[in-house]
Amino acid sequence: MRLLPLALLLSLAPAAAGQTFSAGDFADWGWTTVVFQGSGTTTVGFPATGGNPGDHASVTNTPGAVSWVGTVLHDPSAAWDPATQGGICRVSMSVQALASTGAFGQGQTVRCVVLQNGAVHAGGYAITGVPTTWKPVELHGLVQGDFERIDVDDGSHPDFSSAGAPLTFGFTTANSTGGGGYSLTNLYDNWSVDVVPGAPAAATPVGSGCGVTQPALAADEPVLGKTFSLALTGAAPG
After folding, report:
1. pLDDT tops 60 at residue 235
2. Would the pTM count as exceeding 0.85?
3. φ/ψ bin of 197: left (φ > 0), alpha (ψ from -120 to 50), beta (otherwise)
């Protein structure tokens, strides 16, 4: 695991400082299985070697027939308290993915996760593919309205305002099938989330975020703000 230093980001509000959270030790992370449809299981391991470099997360999703299953992973140390640190303008996430032996098709889907008041919200959407070398998977400029709750199908969003409750961050992976079941394993390393404080926005069109223009997306980068929400049957992480 390459340890990334804490970084300060430019903020829309000059008096407030942004922050970059990064995974220093995956063994400290929490995780839970989510079954969006049908049946399935997941397995998560945190091997000490084989990452880029050092430790990493190994995530196996096993959807049953005509099912959709995934995993929520979260870092309890990646915490933001709007009451003391200010509201959140936008969030960007990055993680590196590597296909394990036997991976196929489109690999796994990856989304950014925000936990608040026991609720699990996911935003953005990316597909890992089946990379044979460590591949960056990035979601840029996500705002409050890009996240929807996935443990309850009520369409609610997290509260990024200064009145909101403390938040922690992480990511999800998922696999689905319209036919027979299967298992697929991906490896993940060097996860990080950039938090830029400021007044929250309800929704953000691709290419902008809280009044700040984002870099143009490359052809293989994910479309922002594409969200879905179904009932989460597993227990939410603590």
Report:
1. no
2. no
3. beta
